[in-house]
Amino acid sequence: MLSRSKRTKLRNRIWPYVVLRREFWNVPRAIRGCRKISESDRGCLHVLICDHIGDFVYTMGYMDALRKNTGYERISIYMTKKFAELAERLYPSKVDKIIVLDNRKLHSLLLIDSTWNGENKYKKLENLMVVNPTNAFTAESYEYIEKYPGMCFSDCIKYGCLNLTEDASFEPPDLRKLKESVDNKADIEKNFEKSVIFAPHARYLAETDTDIWHKTVAELNNLGYKTYTAVEDICEAPIKGSEPLVCSLFELLIFAEKAKAVIGTRSGVFDLLAYTGSMLIAVYPDDCNNRSFHSMGQLPDIKAGYRELTETDFKKGIISALIDRKI
């Protein structure tokens, strides 16, 4: 994997070509696509949510506030398939219609406000909202966030994408429906009574040193814990010494609710699991400069117990004590 400095140099070299392609090809195509959606039902608010877990959690949590703020009685949300199950099960009364798009189609539409010209066209589509914080505040390398030192990720959704006010209320997912929908409760409780789930992958934060996961899995296995690595596909290799846990996001919620703890690189998975009863241990790379932006302490109405550690802190070997909530 390339270091952060090499990634920055590479990005700076290709960025002018990316901008040109966006301006003259991608953004005009996004404008046409979004205009078509807007005109398909002018009496409905159309909300396009990008394919990130945190963006989904915060957008759905502010859905009632968005309905009140905009005055639309009907709301349709556009998302990828992996979030549709969560939306249907955890937020059944929040929206009127769920439209599933493939990743490529959704990503092409989300580019509408990524340039000055696209943003002007986007503002004219009064019944359409795009939830993509990379356009609203952060950009790919987070350089714009420095202008807003008190801003956190959920604020990017609340203010930058949904245009809500400070008094807008956030409603966490209703996990009572989650528990009611589980058919094999006894089997899950038995299998995950003394288990730890690892989620080592993150999309935007540089991934942490893989050696620390190997050592932690070995430590926990020796203490009698059952260890799993959450993966989306059976072809993905789990952390050495752990078993693969191939599951959807909804299934991960079920497993995490019963597991002793979830450990991993800070990612959108923790935004979702923050509303379970799990013990969460989120690890940040030592060179992460945006820890306050991602901090779980700024999440609205968090339910889970959690600790946030740097790689160096994580390597000090206190994980078993953390899991047992002794410190």
Describe the protein.
This protein is α/β, with parallel strands linked by helices and 327 residues long. The protein has 2 domains: 4-161, no CATH class; 175-323, Glycogen Phosphorylase B (Rossmann fold, 3-Layer(aba) Sandwich), CATH 3.40.50. Helices cover 46% and strands 16% of the residues. Helix 11 (210-222) links the parallel strand 5 and strand 6 (226-231). Helix 1 runs parallel beside helix 6 and helix 2 (53-61) packs across helix 8 (153-161). Residues 138-142 have low confidence and may be disordered.
Note the beta-strand portion.
Answer: 15-25%
Q: Mean pLDDT, as a whole number?
A: 81
Number of domains: 2
- Rg calculated over all Cα atoms: 20 Å
Largest sheet: 6 strands, parallel
From the spread of the alpha carbons, the general shape counts as: globular
